[in-house]
Each structure stands twice: as structure tokens, then as C-alpha cells.
Write a structure and sequence with these properties.
Elements: H1 2-16, E1 21-25, E2 32-35, H2 37-41, H3 47-51, H4 55-58, H5 64-74, E3 80-87, E4 93-105, E5 108-117, H6 119-164, H7 169-197, E6 204-208, H8 209-224, E7 228-233, E8 240-244, H9 245-262, E9 267-272, E10 275-277, E11 292-294
Parallel strand pairs: 7-9
Antiparallel strand pairs: 1-2, 1-5, 3-4, 4-5, 6-8, 10-11
């Protein structure tokens, strides 16, 4: 008996002194029925203060209605990993990764939750992503500068010819149209660079994936070199996606550069987009087999 009591004390101390926040949540009201020291200390609350708080009080990413729906949904899945934000006592917002699974005690369902403050880690990851962007920018800049120089050379040629022999009225429109086209090409190159280098909070927008890929491949040609042949296979359907364009550009650019490095002697790089169906359910995901996704 003494051994059992001692083991319970050790286990209680282990949970209480865990580096991660641990708690049991009543999904009906969002109250924390049990919680360890890290749970309240990480948000700057005393144990007494935190005992009066609910999940509605600390979660600042969603509305009360959305939180209520989420708490009910979490009872129906075996486990769920999610990213949310908690507001600390001093008003600061903390990025949190939370793992939840339902537990059943005497016919009632509660949520066992373990969450970790990842604010600093996410800030470091953001800096790393930006550093990777800058590395890619260095590789892209050479190719873009070459293209831009070609554009300027054509514009200079037109202007020099106009100085030597002023164009007739009927030729002037053609000259202006040609120069306007060159300006549009230069603007397009600049926009592509800005898309890749943009450093700001994630901006989700709607765009056609195939068009975005085609634009990226154009400015990647000089990085890939002459020994890499790109074979492009487009989806028969329009692939309209909601995503952060700059992050998508960076991901695809990394894939293209990695593919180039994997073929030092050259080769064929196939870039294909299509709609596929999930054959299995992802762990911890509420999706079901047969759900469509873009591949």
C-alpha cells in the first residue's frame, strides 16, 4: 500500500513538473478540471487565478461559437493535433500547439489536452524560412538580372533608332506598343521577385496553381541550367487553390533546386499537377478516404 501511494505521488509530481502544459477540460463549459503548474505559469497566472479560467478565456484565435463547436468535435475523434493562440495574463499572444484526445470517466466524456508554447520556435522557423528565401533570391537574381538586361537592351535599341530616325506617325504607335510590352515584361519579373522575397504575415489568396507554377518555372530556367529539361504536364481541370503564394513559390523553388542538384549530369524534370483521391484517412485527421486533393 505504501508503495502504491509513493508511486502515485511520483506520477503526480511528474505530471505537475512536466515542461508541457497538461490539463483536463470539460467540453460542456470549457472549464479546466485539472491542470499542472506549467499550464498556469506559462500564461502568467497563479494556480488560483487559472482555476477560474475556461478555454474560452485563454483561446484568442476563435470566436466563442467556434470554440464551442471545436470542443464538441474533439469528443468525436480519437485524437487531434492543432495550432491555436492563447492570451496570457499580460495580454501577450502565445502560439500554441495542442494535442487532444477524449477520455471517458463514469459515462462522461472529457478532453485530455497537452499543449506547448511554440512562440519562440515559430519565430525562429520564420527567420529560417526567410533565410532560405534569401538564398533562393541570390540564385534567382542572376537569371532575372540577365532577363531584365535583355529587356533594357531592346528598349534602348528602339530608342536609339528613334533618335537616329524619328518614326513616322504610323510607326510611332508600333514603337510605343513595343516599348509598353517591354515595360510589362519588366514589371512581371519584378512582381515575381517580390512574391518570393515577401516577408510579412501569411497572406492567403485565391489563385490558379498551374499559372503560378508556370510563372515560377519561367524564372527558374536559368537556375536549372541547360542540362535540365522541364517536362510540364498540366491538370485537365482548373486548380483553384487558397494559399500563401510566396510560401508556395518557395516550396516549389526548393523542389526545383533540389531536383537540379540530384541530377548533376542533367536530365528530365517532370512537373505534373492533377487531382487525386485519398485512399486512407490521415492519422489525427477528420478527413475520410475518397476525399479529393491536388497532387
Amino acid at each position: 500500500r505504501q508503495s502504491m501511494i509513493e508511486r502515485q505521488r511520483l506520477f503526480t509530481a511528474l505530471v505537475d513538473q512536466s515542461a508541457e502544459s497538461i490539463g483536463v477540460i470539460d467540453p460542456d463549459g470549457g472549464r479546466f478540471l485539472e491542470f499542472n503548474s506549467t499550464a498556469h505559469q506559462s500564461l502568467g497566472y497563479s494556480q488560483e487565478e487559472f482555476s477560474t479560467k475556461t478555454f474560452y478565456d485563454i483561446d484568442c484565435q476563435q470566436s466563442r461559437e467556434e470554440i464551442a463547436t471545436q470542443l464538441q468535435d474533439l469528443q468525436q475523434v480519437e485524437k487531434r493535433d492543432l495550432v491555436t493562440r492563447h492570451r496570457a495574463k499580460d495580454g501577450s499572444v502565445r502560439e500554441v500547439r495542442l494535442h487532444s484526445r477524449p477520455i471517458r470517466v463514469q459515462g462522461r466524456t472529457y478532453l485530455a489536452a497537452v499543449w506547448q508554447d511554440v512562440t519562440e520556435r515559430m519565430a525562429i522557423e520564420a527567420e529560417l524560412r526567410q533565410a532560405q528565401k534569401m538564398d533562393l533570391m541570390g540564385q534567382v537574381a542572376g537569371g532575372v538580372a540577365h532577363d531584365f538586361n535583355n529587356i533594357l537592351a531592346v528598349m534602348r535599341l528602339h530608342l536609339d533608332l528613334a533618335k537616329m530616325k524619328p518614326p513616322a506617325p504610323e510607326e510611332l504607335k508600333e514603337l510605343v506598343t513595343s516599348l509598353s510590352g517591354m515595360v510589362d515584361r519588366g514589371t512581371s519579373l519584378t512582381h515575381r521577385l517580390l512574391h518570393i522575397s515577401r516577408k510579412e504575415r501569411s497572406k492567403v489568396e485565391e489563385f490558379l496553381l498551374d499559372e503560378a507554377l508556370d510563372d515560377l518555372i519561367k524564372i527558374s530556367q536559368r537556375i536549372l541550367g541547360d542540362r535540365i529539361e522541364i517536362r510540364r504536364i498540366r491538370s485537365a481541370s482548373k486548380l483553384l487553390v487558397n494559399a500563401d503564394r510566396s510560401i508556395m513559390d518557395q516550396v516549389f523553388m526548393n523542389l526545383l533546386v533540389n531536383a537540379r542538384d540530384a541530377m548533376p549530369d542533367g536530365g528530365i524534370l517532370t512537373v505534373e499537377t492533377r487531382i487525386a483521391e485519398s485512399a486512407t484517412q490521415a492519422p489525427g485527421d477528420g478527413s475520410r478516404p475518397g476525399r479529393q486533393f491536388i497532387q
